[in-house]
Design brief:
The chain is α/β, with parallel strands linked by helices. The protein has helices spanning 15-23, 26-29, 68-82, 98-108, 124-128, 152-160, 188-198, 243-256, 278-289, 310-322, 341-356, 361-374, 412-425, and strands at residues 4-8, 36-38, 42-47, 50-56, 85-91, 114-119, 141-143, 177-182, 215-220, 223-228, 233-235, 260-266, 293-299, 330-332, 387-392, 399-404, 434-439. 33% of the residues lie in helices and 21% in strands. Strand 13, helix 10 and strand 14 form a beta-alpha-beta unit. The longest helix is centred in the C-terminal third of the chain and has 16 residues, at 341-356. The chain is elongated and about 85 Å long. The protein binds guanosine-5'-diphosphate (2 copies). GTP 2 binds at residues 182-189, 229-233, 299-302. Keywords: GTP-binding, Hydrolase, Nucleotide-binding, Repeat, Ribosome biogenesis. Associates with the 50S ribosomal subunit.
């Protein structure tokens, strides 16, 4: 990636306000749904035809007073390491503080361009205060107001002049995005931590800090992916009394932007006769309706008393109860004992492949027209239904249009038959597919 701008500075100077202004997506980012807050730290901005990535590093560090020094160092080092340009935000209302000076000392040593944004210069008079920040010994301070946007244009002119390339509109576009969802206590955070343990990611280890990065980048077997982290949606105190509700809300939020959802299920709560619990089913059908790829991760497998047939039996029981929503792969894991954790990720990447692949029209027709000829749609009131041709639509999740003479008479059972045949011939494991019948 290139064209990266990192925002640094002490708390309350207006970093996140500026971040939101730069990426102009305020609504998507700031959600204050009844006590659930989410901090996102990556966003994409554009200025005079140049695209860039903005990192709000402040969000990674939640130091208390005594760990602050470490926190600053960590935050700034991160920014220096990751970014092409650093944007140091200070506050015109309060003027220079000791903490600002600490930041400036570290920044001055970096080899990267540093811009100083003297924020909260909402009026011309306030803007005059910006001159005070010359004292930091960095570059000329830009008086800006993150809140009303004044001064940000000049600042951006300067910043983008350091970006050599035009950049791409959304560098994350073609990287699989994974959400880890599920009921409380099934092992979602443990799973994430197990993955983080192996991979370098922009996350701080300072004691007492909350890891709430939403987009965690990984590379596994040379493949990049992003985990949109539900743990990033912090639960505020006092709402624990409605844990279930919030976990559903969290799952929904996390799922919004993902390509593949890993639905984590506690193996000890699965009934060999009745299958998954209703709440698990709710989350799965939410993902299905949202047309997400789905992997079922049956976790805490270490706690289940088992023989060599147990997983097969359980899988069969679950699939039977879930029909027709039984196209998802299942993987039996123990996050605690680190069993099949990476296989789970591999499954996810497979599902992503299935979700994004395109079946050539010629191949599709060759296979499916034969299937249809072998078992044509049953006639309706003496009328013969003929499917002549089909093609895949350029949608995010696989969908197909089938052209026929009397689309209104295709029955659901026949549609299901076709879907099953499609799945038999082309691997769509873990992916909801849609068939549309159109008149031709
Ligand atoms: P951060 O902790 O550095 O991310 O700071 P925030 O973006 O959360 O802002 C801290 C406070 O400063 C909030 O109450 C903002 O509304 C306020 N603030 C941010 N930018 C401006 C600005 O340009 N003018 C004024 N007057 N207030 C601002
Ligand atoms: P979350 O609420 O879904 O994020 O669940 P957590 O990751 O916080 O895990 C809930 C509890 O289950 C914690 O006490 C974990 O240590 C425990 N746990 C997670 N995965 C496993 C596992 O594979 N086996 C066992 N025995 N316990 C686990």
């Amino acid at each position: 990636m290139s064209n990266i701008l990192a925002i640094v500075g002490r708390p309350n100077v207006g970093k996140s306000t500026l971040f939101n202004r730069l990426i102009e997506q305020k609504k998507a980012i700031m959600d204050n749904v009844s006590g659930v807050t989410r901090d996102r730290h990556y966003g994409f901005g554009e200025w005079t035809g140049k695209y860039f990535t903005v990192i709000d590093t402040g969000g990674y560090v939640h130091g208390s007073e005594d760990t602050f020094e470490g926190a600053i160092r960590e935050q700034v080092e991160l920014a220096i390491e990751e970014a092409d340009v650093l944007l140091f935000v200070v506050d015109c209302h309060t003027g220079i503080t000791d903490l600002d000076k600490d930041f400036a000392n570290v920044l001055r040593r970096s080899k990267k361009p540093v811009y100083v944004a003297a924020n909260k210069a909402d009026t011309f008079e306030k803007g005059l205060m910006a001159a005070e920040f010359y004292e930091l010994g960095l570059s000329e301070p830009f008086a800006i107001s993150a809140e009303n946007g004044s001064g940000t244009g000049d600042l951006l002119d300067g910043i983008v002049s350091h970006f050599p390339e035009e950049g791409i509109e959304n560098p994350h576009q073609d990287i699989p995005k994974i959400a880890i969802v599920g009921k409380p206590n099934v092992g979602k955070s443990s799973f994430l931590n197990a993955l983080l343990g192996k991979q370098r990611s922009i996350v701080t280890d300072i004691a007492g800090t909350t890891r709430d990065a939403i987009d965690n980048h990984y590379t596994l077997y040379g493949k990049e992916f992003i985990i949109t982290d539900t743990a990033g949606i912090r639960r505020k105190a006092k709402i624990d009394d409605n844990l279930e509700y919030y976990s559903i809300l969290r799952s929904l939020k996390a799922m919004e932007e993902c390509d593949v959802a890993v639905v984590v299920i506690d193996a000890t709560t699965i009934d060999p006769l009745t299958g998954l619990q209703a709440q698990d089913m709710n989350i799965i059908s939410m993902a299905h309706r949202a047309k997400k790829g789905i992997v079922l991760m049956i976790n805490k497998w270490d706690l289940v008393e088992k023989d060599s047939m147990t997983s097969k039996r359980l899988e069969d029981a679950i699939r039977q109860r879930m029909a027709p929503l039984n196209y998802m792969p299942m993987i039996f894991t123990s996050v605690k004992d680190k069993i099949r954790i990476f296989q789970a990720v591999e499954k996810v990447l497979e599902v992503y492949e299935n979700k994004t692949k395109r079946i050539p029209t010629s191949k599709l027709n060759e296979v499916m027209l034969q299937v249809i000829e072998n078992y044509p749609p049953p006639a309706w009131k003496g009328k013969y239904i003929k499917i002549k041709y089909l093609t895949q639509l350029p949608t995010k999740a696989p969908s197909f249009v089938l052209f026929c003479n009397l689309p209104q008479y295709i029955r659901e059972s026949y549609e299901r038959y076709l879907e099953n045949k499609m799945r038999e011939h082309f691997d769509f494991t873990g992916v909801p597919i849609q068939l549309f019948f159109r008149k031709k």
